[in-house]
Amino acid sequence: MFIYFIPVYYPQIQVTQERELDFLKKIKGRNGAEDYLLQIEFQTKNELRMNARMAEYYGILNRKHDLIVEQYVIYIGDEPMSMLNYTRQKKFYHEFEIIDIRDKSYLEFVKSDIPEFVILGILAGFGQDKPEIAVKNILQRIVTITNTNKRYKNTLEKEKYLRQIDVMSQLRGLQNTIIQTLKNMDITFDITKDLRYQEGELIGKAKGEAEGEAKGEAKGEAKEKNKNILKGHSKGMTIVELADFFDVSIEYVKKVIKSR
Questions:
Q1: Tens-place pLDDT, residues 154-163
Q2: Which residue segment(s) compose the domain that 52 sits in?
Q3: Residue 137 placed within a domain
Q4: Which of 1, 83, 129, 253 has the fewest CB atoms within 10 Å distance of its CB?
Protein backbone atom coordinates (compact mmCIF):
# COMPACT_ATOMS: atom_id res chain seq x y z
CA MET A 1 0.00 0.00 0.00
CA PHE A 2 1.39 3.34 -1.00
CA ILE A 3 0.63 6.48 0.89
CA TYR A 4 1.06 9.76 -0.94
CA PHE A 5 1.69 12.86 1.08
CA ILE A 6 0.48 15.94 -0.70
CA PRO A 7 2.38 19.00 0.49
CA VAL A 8 0.15 21.87 1.63
CA TYR A 9 1.37 25.39 1.12
CA TYR A 10 0.23 28.30 3.24
CA PRO A 11 0.97 31.41 1.19
CA GLN A 12 1.48 34.62 3.07
CA ILE A 13 -0.25 37.69 1.75
CA GLN A 14 1.79 40.68 2.74
CA VAL A 15 -0.03 43.81 1.68
CA THR A 16 0.41 47.31 3.01
CA GLN A 17 -2.76 49.19 2.27
CA GLU A 18 -3.48 52.85 2.72
CA ARG A 19 -6.90 53.92 1.56
CA GLU A 20 -8.06 57.52 1.62
CA LEU A 21 -11.83 57.96 1.57
CA ASP A 22 -13.52 61.10 0.30
CA PHE A 23 -16.28 60.95 2.89
CA LEU A 24 -17.11 58.56 5.71
CA LYS A 25 -19.56 59.14 8.56
CA LYS A 26 -21.36 56.99 11.10
CA ILE A 27 -25.13 57.44 10.85
CA LYS A 28 -27.31 56.85 13.91
CA GLY A 29 -30.22 54.59 13.14
CA ARG A 30 -33.69 55.97 13.82
CA ASN A 31 -36.72 54.28 15.34
CA GLY A 32 -34.77 51.19 16.36
CA ALA A 33 -32.88 50.84 13.08
CA GLU A 34 -29.24 49.79 13.21
CA ASP A 35 -26.40 52.29 12.94
CA TYR A 36 -24.46 52.22 9.69
CA LEU A 37 -21.54 53.85 7.91
CA LEU A 38 -22.13 56.22 5.02
CA GLN A 39 -19.32 56.29 2.48
CA ILE A 40 -19.27 58.67 -0.48
CA GLU A 41 -16.62 58.76 -3.20
CA PHE A 42 -16.40 61.47 -5.87
CA GLN A 43 -15.23 60.41 -9.33
CA THR A 44 -14.21 62.83 -12.07
CA LYS A 45 -13.48 60.03 -14.54
CA ASN A 46 -14.47 56.43 -15.18
CA GLU A 47 -12.34 53.93 -13.28
CA LEU A 48 -12.09 50.48 -14.85
CA ARG A 49 -12.15 48.53 -11.56
CA MET A 50 -14.23 50.89 -9.44
CA ASN A 51 -16.44 47.96 -8.47
CA ALA A 52 -13.43 46.07 -7.09
CA ARG A 53 -12.22 49.15 -5.19
CA MET A 54 -15.61 49.68 -3.56
CA ALA A 55 -15.79 46.00 -2.60
CA GLU A 56 -12.37 46.35 -1.01
CA TYR A 57 -13.49 49.44 0.90
CA TYR A 58 -16.54 47.57 2.16
CA GLY A 59 -14.47 44.67 3.45
CA ILE A 60 -12.01 46.92 5.27
CA LEU A 61 -14.67 49.16 6.82
CA ASN A 62 -16.96 46.31 7.82
CA ARG A 63 -14.13 44.41 9.47
CA LYS A 64 -12.91 47.48 11.36
CA HIS A 65 -16.28 48.86 12.52
CA ASP A 66 -18.55 45.79 12.30
CA LEU A 67 -21.26 47.92 10.69
CA ILE A 68 -23.19 47.84 7.43
CA VAL A 69 -21.69 50.26 4.92
CA GLU A 70 -23.96 52.25 2.60
CA GLN A 71 -21.75 53.16 -0.34
CA TYR A 72 -22.29 55.83 -2.98
CA VAL A 73 -20.13 56.95 -5.87
CA ILE A 74 -21.02 60.41 -7.17
CA TYR A 75 -19.82 60.75 -10.75
CA ILE A 76 -19.14 64.25 -12.07
CA GLY A 77 -17.04 63.42 -15.13
CA ASP A 78 -17.50 64.92 -18.58
CA GLU A 79 -17.58 61.55 -20.38
CA PRO A 80 -20.63 59.26 -20.16
CA MET A 81 -20.53 57.15 -17.01
CA SER A 82 -19.53 53.55 -17.78
CA MET A 83 -18.53 52.08 -14.41
CA LEU A 84 -20.11 48.93 -13.01
CA ASN A 85 -21.85 49.27 -9.67
CA TYR A 86 -21.51 45.62 -8.68
CA THR A 87 -19.15 42.67 -8.46
CA ARG A 88 -20.69 39.27 -9.21
CA GLN A 89 -18.59 36.16 -8.81
CA LYS A 90 -19.20 32.62 -7.60
CA LYS A 91 -20.41 32.81 -3.98
CA PHE A 92 -19.66 36.52 -3.82
CA TYR A 93 -21.82 39.51 -4.65
CA HIS A 94 -21.36 43.17 -3.78
CA GLU A 95 -23.33 46.18 -4.93
CA PHE A 96 -23.23 49.94 -4.37
CA GLU A 97 -24.95 53.03 -5.77
CA ILE A 98 -23.53 55.22 -8.54
CA ILE A 99 -25.15 58.61 -8.99
CA ASP A 100 -24.36 60.47 -12.19
CA ILE A 101 -25.04 63.87 -10.71
CA ARG A 102 -24.75 65.60 -14.07
CA ASP A 103 -28.06 63.94 -14.97
CA LYS A 104 -29.67 65.89 -12.14
CA SER A 105 -30.56 69.56 -12.55
CA TYR A 106 -28.97 71.89 -10.04
CA LEU A 107 -32.41 73.48 -9.69
CA GLU A 108 -33.62 70.33 -7.88
CA PHE A 109 -31.03 71.03 -5.19
CA VAL A 110 -31.71 74.77 -5.05
CA LYS A 111 -35.33 74.09 -4.07
CA SER A 112 -34.24 72.44 -0.84
CA ASP A 113 -34.30 74.11 2.58
CA ILE A 114 -31.27 72.10 3.70
CA PRO A 115 -27.97 73.93 2.99
CA GLU A 116 -25.94 70.71 2.74
CA PHE A 117 -28.27 69.53 -0.03
CA VAL A 118 -28.22 72.89 -1.85
CA ILE A 119 -24.40 72.77 -1.91
CA LEU A 120 -24.48 69.57 -3.99
CA GLY A 121 -26.09 71.61 -6.76
CA ILE A 122 -22.62 72.90 -7.65
CA LEU A 123 -21.84 69.38 -8.93
CA ALA A 124 -25.10 68.86 -10.83
CA GLY A 125 -25.97 69.75 -14.40
CA PHE A 126 -26.56 73.41 -15.22
CA GLY A 127 -28.73 72.75 -18.28
CA GLN A 128 -29.13 75.88 -20.41
CA ASP A 129 -27.90 78.16 -17.63
CA LYS A 130 -24.40 79.55 -17.82
CA PRO A 131 -22.10 78.61 -14.90
CA GLU A 132 -22.24 82.19 -13.61
CA ILE A 133 -26.05 82.09 -13.42
CA ALA A 134 -26.16 78.65 -11.78
CA VAL A 135 -23.50 79.60 -9.24
CA LYS A 136 -25.34 82.81 -8.39
CA ASN A 137 -28.63 80.94 -7.86
CA ILE A 138 -26.94 78.41 -5.58
CA LEU A 139 -25.14 81.05 -3.53
CA GLN A 140 -28.27 83.18 -3.27
CA ARG A 141 -30.23 80.19 -1.97
CA ILE A 142 -27.63 79.56 0.74
CA VAL A 143 -27.77 83.22 1.76
CA THR A 144 -31.57 83.17 1.87
CA ILE A 145 -31.70 80.05 4.04
CA THR A 146 -29.06 81.24 6.50
CA ASN A 147 -30.64 84.70 6.77
CA THR A 148 -34.24 83.61 7.28
CA ASN A 149 -34.22 80.17 8.90
CA LYS A 150 -34.17 80.46 12.70
CA ARG A 151 -31.85 77.50 12.90
CA TYR A 152 -29.09 79.33 11.03
CA LYS A 153 -29.88 83.00 11.65
CA ASN A 154 -27.34 85.04 13.63
CA THR A 155 -24.76 82.26 13.41
CA LEU A 156 -21.59 81.69 11.42
CA GLU A 157 -23.27 78.98 9.36
CA LYS A 158 -23.43 81.12 6.21
CA GLU A 159 -19.67 81.45 5.95
CA LYS A 160 -19.23 77.75 6.70
CA TYR A 161 -21.51 76.76 3.83
CA LEU A 162 -19.93 79.27 1.46
CA ARG A 163 -16.56 77.71 2.21
CA GLN A 164 -17.94 74.25 1.59
CA ILE A 165 -19.22 75.37 -1.81
CA ASP A 166 -15.77 76.78 -2.55
CA VAL A 167 -14.20 73.41 -1.73
CA MET A 168 -16.74 71.45 -3.78
CA SER A 169 -16.34 73.84 -6.72
CA GLN A 170 -12.75 72.66 -7.12
CA LEU A 171 -14.09 69.36 -8.46
CA ARG A 172 -15.52 71.28 -11.43
CA GLY A 173 -12.93 74.03 -11.78
CA LEU A 174 -15.37 76.74 -10.71
CA GLN A 175 -13.27 78.34 -7.94
CA ASN A 176 -12.77 81.63 -9.77
CA THR A 177 -16.45 81.77 -10.71
CA ILE A 178 -17.39 81.34 -7.05
CA ILE A 179 -15.09 84.13 -5.85
CA GLN A 180 -16.12 86.54 -8.62
CA THR A 181 -19.83 85.86 -8.06
CA LEU A 182 -19.46 86.50 -4.34
CA LYS A 183 -17.86 89.86 -5.12
CA ASN A 184 -20.59 90.79 -7.60
CA MET A 185 -23.31 89.83 -5.12
CA ASP A 186 -21.61 91.84 -2.37
CA ILE A 187 -21.83 88.89 -0.01
CA THR A 188 -19.84 89.21 3.20
CA PHE A 189 -17.17 86.54 3.03
CA ASP A 190 -13.84 86.62 4.84
CA ILE A 191 -11.67 86.13 1.80
CA THR A 192 -8.50 86.58 3.87
CA LYS A 193 -8.95 82.96 4.98
CA ASP A 194 -9.06 81.76 1.41
CA LEU A 195 -5.96 79.92 0.20
CA ARG A 196 -5.79 81.87 -3.06
CA TYR A 197 -5.91 85.15 -1.17
CA GLN A 198 -3.20 83.94 1.19
CA GLU A 199 -1.04 82.90 -1.73
CA GLY A 200 -1.51 86.32 -3.29
CA GLU A 201 -0.53 87.98 -0.03
CA LEU A 202 2.61 85.90 0.19
CA ILE A 203 3.56 86.79 -3.37
CA GLY A 204 3.01 90.48 -2.68
CA LYS A 205 5.01 90.28 0.50
CA ALA A 206 7.84 88.52 -1.26
CA LYS A 207 8.17 91.43 -3.68
CA GLY A 208 8.87 93.81 -0.83
CA GLU A 209 11.23 91.59 1.08
CA ALA A 210 14.35 89.63 0.42
CA GLU A 211 13.62 86.60 -1.75
CA GLY A 212 15.25 84.19 0.69
CA GLU A 213 13.30 85.51 3.67
CA ALA A 214 9.99 85.30 1.82
CA LYS A 215 10.67 81.73 0.74
CA GLY A 216 11.63 80.81 4.28
CA GLU A 217 8.37 82.20 5.68
CA ALA A 218 6.31 80.49 3.01
CA LYS A 219 7.99 77.16 3.69
CA GLY A 220 7.50 77.60 7.42
CA GLU A 221 3.80 78.34 7.03
CA ALA A 222 3.35 75.45 4.62
CA LYS A 223 5.19 73.10 7.00
CA GLU A 224 2.96 74.11 9.91
CA LYS A 225 -0.20 73.76 7.77
CA ASN A 226 0.89 70.32 6.57
CA LYS A 227 1.65 69.25 10.13
CA ASN A 228 -1.85 70.23 11.25
CA ILE A 229 -3.42 68.48 8.25
CA LEU A 230 -1.68 65.22 9.18
CA LYS A 231 -2.72 65.66 12.81
CA GLY A 232 -6.35 66.13 11.79
CA HIS A 233 -6.17 63.12 9.48
CA SER A 234 -4.80 60.94 12.29
CA LYS A 235 -7.81 61.91 14.40
CA GLY A 236 -10.25 60.70 11.75
CA MET A 237 -11.06 63.81 9.71
CA THR A 238 -11.93 63.04 6.08
CA ILE A 239 -10.13 64.58 3.10
CA VAL A 240 -13.10 66.80 2.28
CA GLU A 241 -13.35 67.96 5.90
CA LEU A 242 -9.61 68.75 6.01
CA ALA A 243 -9.76 70.70 2.76
CA ASP A 244 -12.72 72.67 4.09
CA PHE A 245 -11.15 73.34 7.51
CA PHE A 246 -7.73 74.42 6.21
CA ASP A 247 -9.10 76.17 3.10
CA VAL A 248 -7.03 74.14 0.66
CA SER A 249 -7.86 71.95 -2.31
CA ILE A 250 -8.70 68.27 -1.99
CA GLU A 251 -5.69 67.43 -4.15
CA TYR A 252 -3.43 69.44 -1.80
CA VAL A 253 -4.64 67.39 1.18
CA LYS A 254 -4.09 64.11 -0.67
CA LYS A 255 -0.51 65.11 -1.58
CA VAL A 256 0.28 66.05 2.02
CA ILE A 257 -1.04 62.72 3.33
CA LYS A 258 0.83 60.69 0.69
CA SER A 259 4.12 62.53 1.38
CA ARG A 260 4.24 61.72 5.08
A1: 556 777 788 8
A2: 21-103
A3: no
A4: 1
